[in-house]
Design goal:
By secondary structure, the protein is of the alpha+beta class. It is built from five helices and eleven strands. It is about 30% helix and about 40% strand. Its EC number is 2.2.1.6.
């Protein structure tokens, strides 16, 4: 029996999906008009695709265009379907898979509120300095830190702050851009 065939309890066999899922960062250049973001997100939700991160902002003011950055986890087959369906939407001008194209820079911003007194405050400040996190608010009982970097760096900082009194985390979602002189 082939490895990709699975018995179903009957005389017939069905093929099963054996492709592994992959994390991909997509950028989508769209017209900046009401309803466009809802249509893009609707494309994902209607087909059962998950969005791990979503950021959007107008980036070409004179042309009224926005850039949507989407992080999703999917099989290569599903990812190809996602890109084709995005390209078919009327307000979409360009779709890029930055992961497949390689050579992109990815960053995220997070704000973390950490409460604590005494030794925990000293350790909190020491770790923040090591991670190049900036204090953007301080009181005698808490700090709010701003940290930017790769999501893995932010995840690590959150892990270290948790036992020291982490109260709240707010994250922007991923933004990404290709290296080199060419634009989207």
């Amino acid at each position: 029996m082939n490895a990709h065939l699975k018995p179903t309890g009957s005389a017939y066999f069905l093929t099963t999906e054996t492709q592994a899922t992959e994390r991909h960062t997509l950028t989508v250049l769209v017209d900046n008009e009401p309803g466009v973001l809802a249509r893009v997100v609707g494309l994902f939700s209607a087909r059962g695709y998950n969005i791990d991160s979503l950021t959007v902002s107008e980036t070409e003011h004179d042309r009224h265009r926005s850039r949507i950055t989407i992080v999703t986890v999917a099989t290569p087959k599903v990812l190809a379907q996602i890109k084709l369906q995005l390209e078919r939407l009327v307000p979409v001008h360009k779709v890029h898979d930055l992961t497949a194209e390689g050579g992109s820079l990815e960053r995220e911003l997070a704000l973390l509120k950490v409460a604590g007194k005494g030794e925990n405050r000293v350790e909190t400040l020491r770790l923040a300095d090591a991670f190049r996190a900036q204090v953007v608010d301080a009181s005698t009982e808490s700090f709010v830190f701003e940290i930017t970097g790769k999501p893995s760096k932010i995840d690590q900082f959150i892990t270290l702050m948790t036992p020291l009194g982490l109260v709240e985390v707010v994250r922007t979602g991923l933004v990404a851009i290709t290296r080199g002189p060419d634009g989207m």
